[in-house]
Structures are given as structure tokens and as C-alpha cells.
Amino acid sequence: MTLASWLDESKTFSVDAKTARHTPFFEPIVNTFNSGGYNPHVSYHFNPRVSAYHYGPRHPMKPFRLMLTDHLVSAYGLHQQMDLYETKKATQEELLNFHSEDYIEFLKRITPENCSKFADDLRKFNIGDDCPVFDGMYDYCQYYAGASLDASRKLIAGMSDIAINWSGGLHHAKKYEPSGFCYVNDIVMAILNLLRVHPRVLYIDIDIHHGDGVQEAFYLTDRVMTVSFHKYNGEFFPGTGNYDEVGVGKGKHFALNVPLQDGIDDDSYVRLFKAVIEPVITKFRPTAIIQQCGADSLGGDRLGCFNLNIKAHGECVKYVKSFGIPMLCVGGGGYTPRNVSRLWCYETSVLTNVELNSRLPDTLPFRSWFEPDYSLHPNLGDRYENKNSKKYLDNLLVQLMENLRYLDQAPSVQMQEIPPDLQNITDDEESRIVEKLKQESKIDKYRDEERYYINKMDDCKRGELLD
Asked: What pTM was estimated for this model as a whole?
């Protein structure tokens, strides 16, 4: 039985249970240099504790979608195709590289039990139904931010060509307050880290909501270009993201927004995405890319209103990957957990150059979540009327190309000295590590001397003495 037979759903040949257990559920895609293939080194950054947090029983954000994603990735055997990193928490110092000190102190101190003591702060920091106080909230923020920072370090060190953190992508958080289910902005922190060594970073957002937090953070600079594809009618959250938001000052024309209407379908979305991203990359010439892969732009999402299927969403990720630029992929929105996990598992396969059987593995934990079809690619389209006419999309593309016309050349950056690294350790921890390395060095030196004398004694002839 060949690997390809797993991909053939019309097969009639069956195998015994032992053979089935040891047969992969994926087929490697053979890429060659002549065909323009790209085989990146991929790393997967996760912390299993993130999925245990809970916003509240009626809140649409469900962190356990990350557990479903990890189970799918493991059941398909995709972990064999990547380097796996269980990440540490982001430190308070790392969070303060973007967020204000009084806001981070508030996140540290607030709990469901002492909320009544922080009545004024709750109003000041925009805490409410969208961003509730829940048990372990600060730890949760540290975990998902720490994973994005760890992923950015692997890109900087050249240990990964593509780094994945599906727990990240919380793009609405602002410097002084939370917004849209997002408490700290891991994307901004990862970009700040990448800017230490990368002159230009491109941020691409395909969440159904505008990536306002990231755009706002870099609205005045030409070193980061933000491109966001989202629904916009002036009322849909967060109410920003029209095509005339292009940046200010030095950052003018380095923010590009693609406002869409309800019900856009696969072909229209992918065609528009490729028509915009190709000139953006050509003109801006980024040396690193962060792609936010929010799953609420899928059809059938609890808070979404597009008609995208999983393969179309993944095609956007595949297209960005094809440029061969170091890339960090993060999660984001997505409020129908079974479809979120399907999407991010599929996009993991796209990034690792393998093709998955559309039938979910029988060994998958929580497989009942995916009934009745147990498929990786259910039909999610045609739920909403497509209000994006050809005329509207053509006119929008013309306007976007007009905005890009001002980018005559990629901005140059003078990089003389690499700033200090954003390490996920304190000074005391670093001192202990250095001391431990010194002790290990002394032990290694002693063992080398011991091995030297042993080898010399072995080389001596009978009756000879070694000085």
C-alpha cells in the first residue's frame, strides 16, 4: 500500500489495523528547484496550558480550539515534519516593550475575586463583555505572547524559515488597553523583535476584522507595512480599515486596507489577494513577513459573514510562502472551534509541504466534534449572498494600486549595531546560566586532560613510564 492511497477516497483495498496505524495520513509534495519549489525549515511553537483558559460560558472566544488544532496536527503526523518548541511565558519586561506599565500592572493584579476594588480601572482599561476578567488572565497573555516572541527568535537566529504560533495573532490589543478579545498584542512585540535585525517587516492580516492594533502601532513608520483584508461598513467591529487609511508622516502609504462586503467567495478573494500582495512584496521588499491567519473569515463562522472555504484561505498562506521570505504565521479570530482547528491544521500542512487525506484520522481524540462528515474540508460556502460585485472589486483594486503607486522604492534602513536581544530570561537567570556554563567548561577541561593521559598510557610500550 502506497502513501498516495490514503489520498484516494475511492479506494476499495483495505488493510489490517497494524498497517493502518503505521501508515502516514499525509503525502509529501515533491518540489524541485526547476518547478520553483520551496522546502522551508518549519518550527511549531505551542504551550498546552493556553487551551485550558476560559473567557466565560457565553463568550465566543474559546481557547480550547488550540487543543483541537494540536490534536489534529498530531493525528495527521505533521509533528514529524517540524521542529517542536514548548514555549515559556513572556516576561513583564517583554510585555513592557510595547504596553504601558500601568496597564500591565493592572493585568497582573486584577482577578475575578477582587474586581469590585478596581471599579475605576475597569472603565479606564475598557474591561467589559468583550474583554472580561477571567481566572489566570495575565498568565494566559504571557503564554501566547511568549510563543510569538520565541517564534520570532527562531527566525532571527536562522533556525527556522517559517515559524508557527496558532495561539498568537491577537491583533486588536492597544498600548494602553485591551480590545476585541485581545489583551496584549503579541504581533507588535514579535515585529519589534524582528526589527532588531530586519530592515523591513511586512504584516498581512486575513482575519475578517481589521488589524487595527498592529496598524496603529506602526502607523508612523516606513519600516513596517501593514496590509489588512477585512469586512468594512463603518459599523462592523472595530469600525476602522477603509482604503483611505494609509499612514501618517513617515509612514504615509505604508498602511494598505482592503475593505470587503458580506459573502465574498473563494475565487474573488484569492484573485484579489494575489493581485494586491504581489506588488506589495515587489515594491516594499520585506525581509520578514508576519501573516495573521484569523479563521473568522471562513464561511459558517459564529461572528463572520464571508463564504470562504478552508482551501481558499490556505491558498493565501501558500501564495505568501511561495516568495521564500522568512515568515511567522499566527492565529487570530475564529469562533467555530471545529472549523478553526481544521483550517490551522490544513495551513500547517501547506507550510510543511504535505498533502492531507480529507478524511480525519480514526485515532483523532475528540473526533465527535467533527461529525457528521468527519472531513477536513466541509463545504463552508454559499451561506451568505455575495455583495462584492465585480465592479466593486475592480474599482477597489484600482484604488489600492493608486495607493501603492507612491511606493517608488523600498525604504532604506541604516543598521549599524544590533540592539540587545529580547531574551525570555531575567538578569539573575542569565547569570546562573553563565555560571553553570563556566562550571561545565571546567569539568570538560578536566575530563579532556584525563582522557589525554589515558590515551598516552595506552600508547606506551611495556616497561615505559609516562611522566
From this structure: 0.85
